[in-house]
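Run log // design_07
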């Protein structure tokens, strides 16, 4: 059974490639690496969109806390602020830390 770990997959691929002579399969592996790189980039883009770009950004923690207070006045409780690793701004979340 193949491993899901990237480093283990790379070792398995290298061992598999070592069993072939010439470039008979080289193009196949090059295309597969390109496909994996493209999928990784698409996954990262989707994570960024979900974690940052689809949310309101606040420039400071104080501004985010003001937004939390405003939401509380309108009945929305349980929000907290966190610093975004993508944009270094502040976002609100309802998930407990």
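design_07 sequence
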């Amino acid at each position: 059974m193949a491993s899901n770990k990237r480093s283990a997959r790379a070792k398995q691929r290298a061992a598999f490639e070592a069993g072939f002579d010439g470039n008979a399969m080289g193009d196949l592996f090059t295309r597969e690496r390109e496909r994996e790189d493209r999928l990784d980039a698409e996954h990262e883009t989707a994570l960024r969109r979900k974690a940052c770009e689809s949310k309101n950004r606040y420039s400071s923690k104080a501004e985010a806390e003001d937004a939390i207070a405003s939401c509380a006045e309108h009945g929305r409780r349980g929000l907290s602020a966190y610093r975004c690793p993508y944009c270094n701004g502040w976002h609100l979340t309802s998930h407990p830390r």
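Residues 54 and 88 are 15 Å apart (CA to CA).
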